[in-house]
Amino acid sequence: MFSKEEKKQLKIDFWNQFKVHMQKIRSSNGRRMNWLAYPSEVKDIYIRVDADEKGARLTFDIQGKDEGVRQILWEQLYELKIVLESEMGTDGIWIENASTPVVPVFNRILWERSDLNFYRPGDHPEIINFLADRLIHFDAFYQEFKDILINLAM
Prior knowledge:
With 154 residues, the protein is an alpha+beta fold. It is 45% helix and 19% strand. Strands 1-2-4-3 form a four-stranded antiparallel beta sheet. Strand 3 and strand 4 form a beta hairpin.
């Protein structure tokens, strides 16, 4: 369908378009935000957006090597689950003890639209809207509760 170079260019163009779309949107704390590199301010917590042929997703990963700290952060988030999912407007997929070849064990909360395909350019506006909406809602939650996570991770 697409050559390697065409895929690369499609990704560059899409993420630049997403950055432009999000550029004027400030965090709920009023600050400018690099939405593609969302600052968790907690070591080993990563907030990522992604899109591919399988869909579009926002992930919240706890990748700490210290199992105790990872578990404490996970339990705290689980206690905030109702608040988080209420703010997000939808349930997340909670995955405890996930793994990849790169990260042996981590916990993840995932919001996904699997009906979208990054390689269908007609889906791009909907992918942008989905990711923007998820990030904005996530930010409202995270700015409210991040200090709890920061203190637990210390």
